[in-house]
Amino acid sequence: MILCDTNIFIEVYKNNSTIISVLEKIGQERIAASQVTSGELVFGALNKRELAAIHSDLQKISIIPISTEISQLAFDLMLKFSLSHHLALPDALIAATAISFNLELYTLNLKDFKFIPGINLYK
To answer: 1, 10, 68, 92: which has the fewest Cβ within 10 Å?
Structure first.
């Protein structure tokens, strides 16, 4: 299973053929998202039609909820990297999800994650 960052889904909604091709290669049954990503996508919806499309799409993939283990790891990552690397809470939670489930993280923002020990970035 591959954990996709929010920016991957945004590119799909922008009809980015390169990202769509990569996701097709991965296969819908192997695509996952953090609950944080699902929240960010819903928050970014511009209207009811877009919100309905996002909701429908999210139901087709695995959504990983934020557990106690994930939230604690995210907190630890924030303690280590919020000042030195400006690690934001959503990114810390997404990274912690990937690490906790030993999933590769597919993101376009490599700089936001590459410094985190234990993270496995999808190439």
So the answer is: 68
CB 87 within 8 A of CB 78: yes
Q: What is the pLDDT of residues 61-76, one digit of tens each?
A: 999 999 999 999 999 9
Distances, alpha carbon 109 to alpha carbons 10, 64, 69, 102, in Å: 13, 20, 24, 19
CA nearest neighbour of 31 among 60, 7, 54: 60
The CATH number for 15's domain is: 3.40.50.1010
Across the chain, mean pLDDT equals 97
d(CA 56, CA 62): 12
The reported pTM is 0.94
